Fold each of these.
Amino acid sequence: MTVPKYRLTYFNWMWIAEPTRFLLSYVGEDFEDVRLSYEEWMKDDPKINKNDFPYGKLPVLEDRENNLKLGQSFAIARYLARKYNLVGNTIVDAAKCDEYADVLKDMLSEVEPMWRADEKQKAEIKAAFLEKTVPRYFSVIETDLKNNGGKYLVGKTTTWVDFLCAHFTEMFQIYLNTDILTNYPALKAHQHQVFEISAIKEWKDKRPVTPY
Ligand SMILES: N[C@@H](CCC(=O)N[C@@H](CS)C(=O)NCC(=O)O)C(=O)O
């Protein structure tokens, strides 16, 4: 049996590792999808050696081909995107990909505090996210997407931000239990199209079922 080129270690969640799983599925690369127990990790269970992972955080990608161990989920996705030519055709395309990726990262950083918040704080974070954050960012991306024809966020080919955007819009919907795309039909249609790509659909159908 051949050892896959890639080993991706994360917890048993989609969250910030899923765009990389989409990417590897899309380019047809087999990968070891290692899912550590968050409970064991937090208890410093001796089974897990946190020193194996840069910064003691997950996800971490190992690329055996390039003898690389890489931390930081967005750096991982961007690295694979560059390796497989999923950053558009020009430096302007690549820059637009980075811009949208950073938008999604900013949005993520606004919902993440819900993880440790009490019920009152959760409601406040959710309200601010829906009333301010979503319109601030999605109104721009919705217009850009429409102007670009609706199929791709950047240029005329699939890029890594198509995966990021489809995934995180779904994550926000699940996490906030709200259809955040109601007012953004182009983004909704784009998400649907990404999920209909056969490799992505196949991955989504076979991936472990997790709450987020
Ligand atoms: N900015 C980092 C965040 C990494 C991060 O905080 N990962 C969390 C899981 S989502 C983690 O490893 N938590 C365990 C810990 O901090 O000990 C990334 O995007 O990869």
Amino acid sequence: MNELENLRCRIDAIDKELIAVFEKRMATVHDIAKYKIANNLPILNQGREEAIISKVSESIKNKEYTDSAIDFIKDIMKISKKYQEKLILEQK
Ligand SMILES: C=C(O[C@@H]1C=C(C(=O)O)C=C[C@H]1O)C(=O)O
């Protein structure tokens, strides 16, 4: 296997881990959406999102990746809200 193939193998293994963790997060988002529906709460919680972004920038070890990590978590939260909207629409 050449170097590029070897590195891509490593990416494939990391993606597998990412998807497993993503599934766990989405299952929790699902439970949060059910709670919001039952308690008539809005999908967006700006304060919570800002706190998550702060935690990400504090906890990332390689500061070279800070901006990318913030972009990443913002995209994840966008996906989370889109999924919650879908669940809420299905209830109506
Ligand atoms: C999951 C929630 O809903 C929204 C999505 C968030 C997320 O994906 O982390 C955070 C805050 C909310 O804007 C929540 O309220 O906790």
Amino acid sequence: MSPHWWRWVASTDSLTARLIAAGGARRFSVRLLRQRVGYPFADEARALGIDAKRYVWQREVALCLDGSPWVVARSVAPLATLRGQRLYALGERSLGSWLFRQPGLDRRPLEVTDNLPRFIAADSLWGRRSVFRHGRLALLVQEYFLPAMADELGLPSR
Ligand SMILES: C=C(O[C@@H]1C=C(C(=O)O)C=C[C@H]1O)C(=O)O
């Protein structure tokens, strides 16, 4: 991975904040693609340390600059850990903006992939995921960086 991409992929602060800063005059928005309750993918269950037959809340979004998707993200949290957190009510507000305001937020190590996201038909250059913990809440956030972002920021393709 080139150092340009490493800076994005290995960052552990808010990706929302980084995209807004990098976007300059472009307008940042979150497009809600899908939100549902269902079973996790097997590898998501493993990453969360739960049984694959436990219900999870799933949220899939595109993070856009001037309406063009730069990142797609899928976040998954076991229903049992969501109690009291009205995350489903976020709509098109960024999950990251909420998350990084929470005191005592713990982020587990990042995992990186060059596989395509399975939840949406989109090319991706790099993907990454990590589990956030906040009180009872366990939230697996998976983010995939799209070629449009590389084009707009003049980043190399890998
Ligand atoms: C975790 C963050 O939240 C971002 C916003 C998301 C959303 O609104 O669903 C999902 C994943 C992230 O790309 C972040 O900003 O770092």
Amino acid sequence: MRTLLTSQQMKAVDRYMIERMKIPGLVLMENAAHGVYEAIRAEMEPCSVQVFCGTGNNGGDGFAVARILLANGYDVKVVVLGNPSDISGDAAENFAFFKETREFYTVITNREGLEALPEADVYVDAVFGTGLSRPLDGIYRIAAEFLNERDALVVSIDIPSGISAQTGAVLGTAVRADITVTFQYPKIGHFLYPGREHSGELQVVKIGIDDGCDIPLQAAVCVYESDDPDMCLGQRPLDSNKGSYGRLLMIAGSYGMAGAAVLCARAASRAGAGLVTAAACGDVVDVLQHTVPEATCFELADENGVLAKEAADMVLKLSQGKTAVAVGPGLGRGEAVEEVVSRIIAECDLPKVIDADGLNALAGHLEVLEEKKGEVILTPHPKEFSRLCGLSVGKILEDPVKAAVDFAAEYGVTLVLKGSTTIVADQFGNATLLCVGTPGMAKGGSGDVLTGVIGGLLAQGKDVYEAAITGVYIAGMAGETAAEQEGEYSMTPMDTVRYIGKVIDDMVVEYISADTIHGCGGGEYMPHRLQQPTEIVMEPIGTPVFQASEADAAEKMEAEETAESPAASAEEAMEEEEPTIVVPPVGEAEVQPDEPAMDFLEKYADDPKPATRAQRRRLEGLQEKERRPFFRHRAKEETEAADDMTEEELVNKVREELPPDTPKGPTRRKIG
Ligand SMILES: NC(=O)C1=CN([C@@H]2O[C@H](COP(=O)(O)OP(=O)(O)OC[C@H]3O[C@@H](n4cnc5c(N)ncnc54)[C@H](O)[C@@H]3O)[C@@H](O)[C@H]2O)[C@@H](O)CC1
Ligand SMILES: Nc1ncnc2c1ncn2[C@@H]1O[C@H](COP(=O)(O)OP(=O)(O)O)[C@@H](O)[C@H]1O
Ligand SMILES: [K+]
């Protein structure tokens, strides 16, 4: 799990370090530039590099990178876009060297100027960072388009120029980077499309903004990605029984849409619910009894295969003794459905997840949410959300985090806005982005699976925000596994259901105490969560921008100094050292799963970074196959060499080659 900052929060952190911690801005910029330089050096030996610089601090980073590259033998040209006399502050300090020597920079104002430049091996995009405030136009637009046409490595500093750090939106046009190097904290725009795709491989480097500033703790947005080690569940206690894992009441399906109920019920069971009770109209019950034998079923009153108003009394009666409700998949539409859904919300005090036709039933009747008795999770895709909130889909996607957070706060619900990046927002202004799932899930029925998983977790006693986040993670990871096994084109939602168990099994760790309700752990591992909306104060500078008083800060420093021995803190610091994280590139390369092996290998020979996990696995598999003869050959040589050794020499050699003791990871408790 990673904390994401907005541009405003990042600026506030920056100011804290400069004004309070007295780290000069130039030092931060130098550290940032070294991070970018390391990223380039890891990819390319000294070669020709053009650094496109704007006139703000992003450009300042660019000048510093250019200087470091020059000092390390790269052939560098700085391309200044905009008026050099606008360069000020730290950026001007870093520009000074180029201004003086004149030899390594040029100011470009039009396309002809760019086209007259020689081709380079690497282009660095240091035009705009978090300060982007309006769509790119003029020379900036031309330069972004020019960079996108280059057949060379493009490295963006902080965020691809033209991408909004807040929303991931393209403002006018935007650079498509192969690598983006950002500083200390990723930004929301790195994880929302189209920003996620434009960022390429994301690297996060430390620049000296460390502990001591509480703004990152106040951040309300965080992200989970595939295989995130922080996402875990506790073990089931050995002496538990089905009653320990809750009872889910599911109301789903109608004539012709029994499948939605089947997927939802199966997913809930796979997510661990102790008992799933499916309430539906007659035809659906018949199907459920055959396909989901583990569920108990009740027939509800219907009219032409869709719930009748009278069904509401039966549903409310059935809800007694249950621990959660899932309602909506495949319910169909009509006044009766609206009444059933409204009454469940207003009269049943259990936590509930509402999806699909449950959401359609709510659209236009949002006042019902003001009367809600139990906590509510809504799981719309953008179109369903548009029907709910009245904003157009386009408007929602302009700033989906804001749209989700605003709605959740206004109606006091947890909102799951589904998509290629799914956003979970709670009523306090917190949001979690989940970069899991696969285009293989873009197939009818995937949403029903998610509803079942969330319902199953709710039934087991998970808090609504946790159930929503964990549910999206599990369904997304199960979808990714299904895509690996069955292919992105062919996988079905039922395949996703099949792999839920594998995903959950990988998430179960021994070290979470099972005393969280019903043995479903994870609480303390979930993101830091604000209980009150927080505002980051930007003005006035220098005085109480940050809440802690001088006296508090001095006290805290003194306490920290006396609390730890230097050796212990150094050791801890090493342990806590955050590695540079690398987010796999997304979207760019569209490779069909059925592509012949050789074409696939050739396509990625120079750039082994296919778009999806499934594609990466496939590539790794093929590369491994390619390598095999070599390994066999080496193994044979080694055996022959070993034959010539005495036994003692052989034992010593093996000892030398043994890896040092590695710490043991969490293991599952053995039963029996
Ligand atoms: N915040 C931090 O902690 C650090 C920030 N650093 C760098 O500083 C950057 C932010 O610097 P700035 O705040 O100066 O912002 P930028 O360098 O991103 O750009 C701001 C300048 O561009 C202008 N501008 C914005 N959009 C424009 C458009 N479409 N067309 C023309 N002009 C436009 C603005 O008016 C402003 O003058 C970060 O992205 C990062 O690269 C680093 O130096 C390291 C430390
Ligand atoms: N390109 C994608 N990448 C990741 N996840 C996706 C993608 N497309 C769809 N999904 C996921 O699949 C599910 C689809 O839900 P939904 O649109 O409600 O489907 P349906 O109503 O047909 O069941 C959501 O959880 C969504 O996040
Ligand atoms: K940039």
